[in-house]
TrEMBL record:
The chain crosses the membrane at residues 28-51, 161-178, 185-205, 211-229, 241-261, 281-299, 340-362, 382-404. InterPro entries: YibE_F (IPR012507). It comes from Arthrobacter psychrolactophilus. Keywords: Membrane, Transmembrane, Transmembrane helix. This is YibE/F family protein.
Amino acid sequence: MGHSHSHAEEAPLTRPQMRRRKALRRRAVVLLSWILVPLAVLTAVAMLFMWPNADTGKAPATNPYSAAPGASIVTGSVQRTISEDCSLNAGGLAGTSCFIAYTAVEGSADVPVVVSPDIEASRPVRAGDKISYLDLSKLPGITGADNNGAKYVFMDFVRTFPMGLLALVYAVVVVAVARWRGLRAMVGLGGAFAVLAWFILPALAQGQPPLLVALVGSSAIMFGVLYFAHGFSVRTSTALLGTLFGLGVTAGLAAWSVDAAALTGTTGHNAYQLANLTDGMSLSGMILCGLVISGLGVLNDVTITQSSAVWELHELAPHTSARELFTSAMRIGRDHIASTVYTIAFAYAGSALPVLLMVSLFDQPLLTALTGAELAEEIVHILVGSIGLVLAIPVTTAVAVAVVKATGKSPSVPPVHREAADSKVLDPA
């Protein structure tokens, strides 16, 4: 039986069959184009219409220390650290211990930088660290005769080198493993952040409708990232269609849940400052936009994987019926759903760990803690993102099955020969 099946796979197509397959392939491509091209045009037109105007909105916020004449922010390298009497450098009470980091700046002597106790308790300043500090030595109140004020105050660590090194290692690992496709994915990621920085954030700050900003910006990101990283193909178009469907579901759920759950966006310590710095931006609208954007990466992952799974299953068994192909692909999809739901939940739990810890220390019922302002936003993030993700998988699978049956071709090389060819690619020797 296996022998006859192999001959069926290798049997050449007749001319009418080839013509019919080409016609079906063209029909599927045209159908996908009829759907995706208008969506792409609509996305581009909406972006142009809502593009932030540089002449509107409030002036950019200035450095909070620039209003103090004579104050400056300096970067230096820590030479040594010591605990000493506060009255010597910080103008504090005698007998109180202060953490001092003697910091060198090129062309000047070491200066005693006062480090706050919470920094020392969390991640102590060490010799060799590069830090930035506030130089108040030229202010009149500091340079008076008594000379008791804190002249140099720690601001932050300089993280350029370790973060740059991590980025370099990340790029090397991605290119080494994924090669050209990995490089394209990283360039696409750069384009996605460009859309975020130049369109989504300024549009939100200028009071544009958050739901439209999220939908348009996210759609533009997905069009660019998917086609750039995976190439222009029917397989990629199928995944993009499933992604856009999931994006629409997520946006609709986000709009409803933000209003129904009364998410105000005022729980963060920067909320009111952000509202004052922007031109009428809604804090709840910012949450809505964040709900849509936060699910893009995982949504893109599951749709492209599911679309690829359908094609690979079809290549292995090209004569499988559409129903059997859908059922087989959904077995993979269900495993992907289970693992990805955990991924979303733990990703949000990790980012909200300080809030979770703080809430756990409160003496209150569990239900009150879960539905309180501190945790409600994170839980809604998890639920909305997971629903959009789960619904996108069967839709992507169904579209992929329909398209692959119209455009997919039987393997030109029998499976045994293909495995041998693959082994030669992996082991040229």
